[in-house]
Amino acid sequence: MDNLWIPALHRDHTMAQARVALALLCALLLVAGVAPRAEAVSYNVGNSAGWDPSADLPSWAGGKTFYVGDVLVFQYSSYHTLDEVDEAGYNNCSAADAVLSQNDGNTTVPLAAAGDRYFICGNQLHCLGGMKLHVLVNQPAAGGGAPAGAPPQSPPQTGSGATLGPPTTDDDAGIPYLVLGGSHRATVGPLLVTWLLVLAAALIV
């Protein structure tokens, strides 16, 4: 009579293994669904030219999508200042009501809230010559990813004064990420995915 229970026990054990495997696969799919844009980005304003009249700042900002948590790094000479102003101050190149005025030559500005941010050089002639920057800061979608339909994020640019996050490139596009601490990410690489699938297959057998 005891032998009659063996097939039933084997069947129950197999079903338990299948449930574990299914749970693992669900977890894997959840990880794969995490948006790739989940880390803060540090931007060196003006690239190699820095915060300077020689930099084409509108072109530099064009095509970039800025999010809450990103950082702007302004590097400039002693002939310039960095002033954050409102829209009127930006349009009129006036730093009279600036909410931020710096002249240390290496200023890091965190983008802590969504909305428009305006920056000018306090020297009005420099500002009128194009040394001004307007950025629109976006609120990330729920879950930390970029909103659907947002333009592709440019690779982060680093320089002295950059403070956040490891640089990323297009080489890791399409690889799922986990958010760790809000400003860094860990790659769930192909090797880990392969091992998870092998483990799931072994449990089903």
CATH T-level fold name of the domain at 42-138: Immunoglobulin-like
Please tally the β strands and state the result.
10
So, the CATH homologous superfamily of the domain at 42-138? Cupredoxins -  blue copper proteins
Mean pLDDT: 72
Task: Please identify the top-level CATH class of the domain at 42-138.
Answer: Mainly Beta
Strand order of the largest sheet: 2-8-7-4-5
Largest sheet: 5 strands, mixed
How many distinct helices? 5
Low-pLDDT ranges: 29-37, 145-189
Q: Mind telling me the C-alpha Rg?
A: 25 Å
Structural class: alpha+beta
Global shape: elongated
> Secondary-structure element order, as H and E?
HEHEEEHEEEHEEEH
Brief sketch in words of this structure:
This protein has 205 residues and is α+β, with helices and mostly antiparallel strands. It is 29% helix and 21% strand.
Account of the 3D structure:
Keywords: Glycoprotein, Metal-binding, Signal. The chain is of the alpha+beta class and 205 residues long. The chain has a domain at 42-138: Cupredoxins -  blue copper proteins (Immunoglobulin-like, Sandwich). The chain has 5 helices and 10 strands. The protein has helices at 5-32, 57-61, 87-92, 124-128, 190-204, and strands spanning 42-44, 66-67, 71-75, 82-85, 100-102, 106-110, 115-120, 132-138, 177-180, 184-187. It has a 5-stranded mixed sheet with strand order 2-8-7-4-5. A 3-stranded mixed sheet has the order 1-3-6, with no helix packed on it.
